[in-house]
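Supplementary notes for students who missed Thursday's class. We covered one full example, reproduced here. Read the sequence, then the structure, then the short commentary at the end.
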Amino acid sequence: LQVQLMKSEYKQNYTRAELKCQSSCQPDHQSYIWIKNGWEHLRETSSSVSVSVYSADTYSCALKGYEEFPSISVYAPQLPSASVSPSGEIVEGRSVTLTCTSDANPAADYTWYKEDGQKTSSNESQLIFTSIQSSDSGRFICKAENQLGWKWSEYKHIDVKYAPQLPHVSVSPSGEIVAGSSVTLTCNSDANPAANYTWYKEDEESPKVSGQNFIITDVRPEHSGNYSCEAQNTRGSRISTVHLVVVRGHLLLVT
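Structure (token representation):
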């Protein structure tokens, strides 16, 4: 015995379906038993039945007098299970696979979506990134669907780790820097995890300061020179350099 789904129509919170019980037995068996949720017998005894299928419902059929030999049940997808491989830290450039599985009969079709609602390129149970990029970070969800209904998986968060990008170094105030004034050097780099910053001055081995900002409160001509910012995290490091020129202040004579 086999239950065939002849047609179906999604409603607001259930599916209206027409089911047919197919039998390879002799044609003198005219009466059928329809079984809902494994125990409830429907009054319908023909080979076809029209039913309302909710998310937890199952339907099977049997020949009358042979109720102990029912068909395999048909049912909407159960709550999908979503997984990420490899588990643990996800590093840019590596291969990553998201897999979605759901118990369903008929077998479920799968669709992956990113958290912004955008459908991905995969219509399979697996969403494969052969070389994952930082732009792929985000939350993903899988929809399992057959003719009797659908279910959504839980979100899976993808957090792609990557080395710092080339830092951008800025100087404030911009323009001419006058001795005796204050100047701030700022370093920014896109990185995951967030970068740590270290400042160096040319021809000096020891770092000047750690942190995103390097502030010189009473700048002098001897502060002129090249300053390098190193952005570093567990994935790597990058360095950018800025040239600082300090001029002596002008003396205004009043007569």
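Commentary. The radius of gyration is 34 Å. Residues 250-255 have pLDDT under 50 and may be disordered. If anything here is unclear, bring it to office hours.
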